[in-house]
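[recover] target loaded
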């Protein structure tokens, strides 16, 4: 399968994130994509292509344009006032009963447009964020040109980003942008399957009241795991979208491949029932047993089987890279899913 990747994505590299009350070097770092790229090349997955450039309208189809303008302007505004020594980071959040007013000051905007501290911006961030969206869009166009499958090696990831909020290392929701692009290219029904360890709250939120995009996600029980405020089993969609959202929260620590596979088969059955024209996978590898911020127990060989199971749906399939922080094993695990799929085609 073709792989889309851009070195511009390396321009997003933050200093710290807060972890257990302590500033900690970021888990979401450029070397993650390096490891994946290295393995997919080593194992001859396919040709690596540069993304094409897309207008920002492709992004604002699923994001608020004020939010996107904020992402673009945040760093210059922050730097002008505070200098370049630290990343622009949110530090004040809206009250539960706040007025929906965007504050004038950059610190107010950082809080308005975010929902946690795991998102900051520095000098190269916006360029990398745009590039990551272009990588997803280019992957979608490879599918639209008739290829059965493609891999968009996106960084930063996207599935936590909603129409107007960044969070969980995510800024632009790459998979949502790609899904919308495929709709606009004439695909009538699109399914998104999110296998990242964390609930894809942003993707759910963007498509929650739509019946043209089905969203399924398997993840750590949000009662005990990030992102805490969504991902529960009774969130099934709203209005026209009722029945088009499927969450399968699983127990922390005891979820191994036996448990996971059953959840995956439920998602596959639901996606078949939805009867879509194209499938997108939010491919997070943080379900791995040695992931430093997660607590499922999948082993490297299980990812090969995951790829085979996804292939069994016999759909055109775009893989969009999301999380996964066990950097030494991340490349192998990612390549296992993609080769598991490709070799059973
Ligand atoms: C992004 B993705 C550890 C807490 C981490 C944010 C997790 C974001 C995960 N310092 N909180 O879904 O892999
Ligand atoms: Zn994750």
């Amino acid at each position: 399968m073709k792989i889309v990747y851009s070195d511009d994505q390396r321009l997003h590299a933050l200093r710290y994130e807060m972890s257990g009350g302590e500033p900690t070097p970021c888990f979401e770092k450029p070397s993650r994509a390096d490891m994946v790229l290295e393995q997919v090349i080593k194992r001859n997955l396919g040709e690596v292509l540069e993304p094409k450039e897309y207008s920002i309208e492709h992004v604002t189809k699923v994001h608020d344009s004020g939010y996107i303008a904020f992402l673009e302007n945040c760093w210059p505004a922050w730097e002008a006032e505070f200098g370049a020594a630290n990343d622009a980071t949110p530090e004040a959040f809206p009250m539960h009963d706040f007025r929906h007013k965007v504050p004038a000051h950059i610190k107010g905007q950082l809080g308005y447009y975010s929902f946690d501290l795991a998102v900051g911006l520095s000098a190269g961030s916006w360029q990398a964020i745009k590039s990551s969206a272009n990588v997803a869009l280019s992957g979608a166009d490879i599918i639209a040109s008739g290829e059965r499958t493609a891999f968009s090696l996106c960084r930063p990831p996207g599935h936590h980003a909603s129409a107007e909020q960044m969070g969980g290392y995510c800024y632009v929701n790459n998979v949502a942008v790609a899904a919308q692009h495929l709709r606009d290219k004439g695909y009538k029904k699109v399914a998104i399957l999110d296998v990242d360890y964390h609930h894809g709250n942003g993707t759910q939120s963007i498509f929650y009241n739509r019946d043209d995009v089905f969203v399924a996600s398997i993840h750590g029980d949000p009662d005990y795991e990030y992102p805490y405020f969504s991902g529960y089993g009774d969130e099934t969609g709203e209005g026209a979208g009722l029945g088009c959202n499927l969450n399968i929260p699983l127990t922390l620590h005891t979820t191994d491949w036996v448990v996971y596979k059953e959840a995956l088969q439920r998602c596959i059955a639901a996606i078949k029932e939805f009867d879509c024209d194209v499938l997108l996978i939010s491919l997070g590898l943080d379900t791995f047993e040695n992931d430093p911020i997660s607590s499922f127990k999948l082993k490297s060989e299980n990812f090969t089987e995951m790829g085979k199971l996804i292939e069994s749906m016999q759909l055109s399939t775009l893989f969009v890279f999301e999380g996964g922080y066990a950097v030494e094993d991340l490349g192998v695990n990612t390549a296992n899913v993609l080769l598991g799929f490709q070799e059973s085609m």
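[recover] notes: The chain is about 35% helix and 15% strand.
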